Amino acid sequence: MTTAGNRWQHHQSFLAAGEQKLVRAIIVEMPPRITPLFLTKLGLFGAAVAAVALIGCRWSLLWLPLVPVGVFINWFGIALDGPLAVYRGEARPRLGLVEHTYDLFSQILIIVAFGLSPFLTIESAFIVLICYLLFSAYTYIRAIARHVQQMAYIGMGATEFRILMVVWAFAAHSLGIDSTAGEGVRSLDAAIAILAVIAVCGLGFKAFTDARRVAMDENGHGA
């Protein structure tokens, strides 16, 4: 757990510790000409590469190897832009707003592209997108209300989510899932819907416990 001013960040994902060590090692060696804003834009470019590759898989699986390449570029840009700004003493609220906005649109782009790929139906993609936006919104709400930035839920953070997307693209291909042909997608849609309901219920429970904690804190201050 690290602090930045009065804001606490909870790195609870499975890969967080190793990822932070890697990020610190990279930013120390980063050339001065590479700016945080450049990395932010690079992250969006990586998302666009992954999205084009996913959609291209509808016509040719030669696009498939570009999916992890695009996702890696996206991770590299998004994971390093903020830490690099902090390391160089260039962190500003406006820059942070740009970083978060680019990151949000990057993930939306990739998720929607999955719905236009052979690996997921558009219905399932929108279910995943709704869940992602709900969790993202609650993360921002907690950051404002309680000065706590929840970086992961149940060990799953942004990096784990990116890895899961790449793994699913190759797994779906190996399993012969083809949403464009309607093969093996009904059970997949049902499974994703069930998982989404569980995830939303879990988020609702967390929101309820957080609300109780805030109420107890307020009552304690009032007393």
Fold topology:
Layout: E1 2-4, E2 7-10, H1 16-28, H2 36-56, H3 66-87, H4 93-115, H5 122-145, E3 148-150, E4 152-153, E5 156-157, H6 158-174, H7 186-222
Parallel strand pairs: 2-3
Antiparallel strand pairs: 1-2, 4-5
Question: What report would you give on this structure?
Answer:
There is one protein chain. It is flat and about 55 Å long. Helix 1 packs across helix 3. With 223 residues, the protein is mostly helical. The protein has helices spanning 16-28, 36-56, 66-87, 93-115, 122-145, 158-174, 186-222; strands at residues 2-4, 7-10, 148-150, 152-153, 156-157. Strand 1 and strand 2 (7-10) form a beta hairpin. It contains seven helices and five strands. 70% of the residues lie in helices and 6% in strands.
